[in-house]
Design a protein that fits this description.
With 158 residues, this protein is mainly alpha-helical. The chain is built from 5 helices and 2 strands.
Length: 158
C-alpha cells in the first residue's frame, strides 16, 4: 500500500496543481524614520521629503539601506553648516598675518565629494538614476502590474 500524501497545507513544495493555497502576508505600513535631532531645518525638511517621495517606496529602498542613507543626510547637514560658517568669514588671517581662504573651504570640498558619491549610489539625481538603469516609472508600473496579477490570481482561485 503506497504512503499517504501530506495534507496540502503541510506541504513545502507548492508547484503541484492540487495545493492551491496562496498565502499573502499583510503589507505592513512602514514607519517613516525620524530625522536626527541635531540636524538643521533644511536637512530635516529634505529627509522628510525623501521619505515621502516614491523613491523611498519598498520597490526601491530596503531596510539595509537606512544606515548609508542616514550617513548621507548627516554629511549634507555638515555641508550646510560648513557653508554657513564660511559665509560668515570667507577670508581669515593666516599664521603670518596674510589673508587666506577659510579652512571651511577644504571641509566643504571634502564633504561635497562624499555627498556626491552617496547621492549617486542612491540614484538621487536624474543622471544617477539613468546610470543605474532604473527609472521610477518602470518600477511603479511593474509593481502595479504585479499587484494586479496577484489579485487576478486570487480571484480565480476563490
Amino acid at each position: 500500500m503506497p504512503a499517504q500524501r501530506k495534507p496540502a497545507d503541510r506541504r513545502q513544495r507548492t508547484n503541484t496543481t492540487d495545493v492551491g493555497v496562496v498565502r499573502v502576508l499583510p503589507s505592513a505600513t512602514p514607519m517613516l524614520p525620524a530625522p536626527a535631532p541635531h540636524w538643521g531645518g533644511s536637512t530635516t525638511e529634505a529627509w522628510n521629503d525623501f521619505w515621502s517621495s516614491p523613491l523611498a517606496g519598498p520597490q526601491v529602498m530596503k531596510p539595509t539601506d537606512a544606515p548609508a542613507l542616514r550617513r548621507l543626510f548627516d554629511l549634507r547637514d555638515r555641508l550646510t553648516k560648513a557653508f554657513d560658517e564660511m559665509d560668515l568669514e570667507p577670508i581669515v588671517v593666516g599664521s603670518t598675518g596674510q589673508p587666506t581662504m577659510s579652512p571651511w573651504a577644504a571641509e566643504i570640498h571634502r564633504l561635497e565629494g562624499a555627498v556626491s558619491k552617496l547621492e549617486d549610489k542612491f540614484g538621487l539625481t536624474p543622471l544617477a538614476r539613468l546610470k543605474l538603469g532604473v527609472t521610477f516609472e518602470e518600477g511603479v508600473s511593474l509593481a502595479t502590474r504585479n499587484a494586479e496579477l496577484l489579485q487576478a490570481f486570487q480571484r480565480s482561485q476563490a
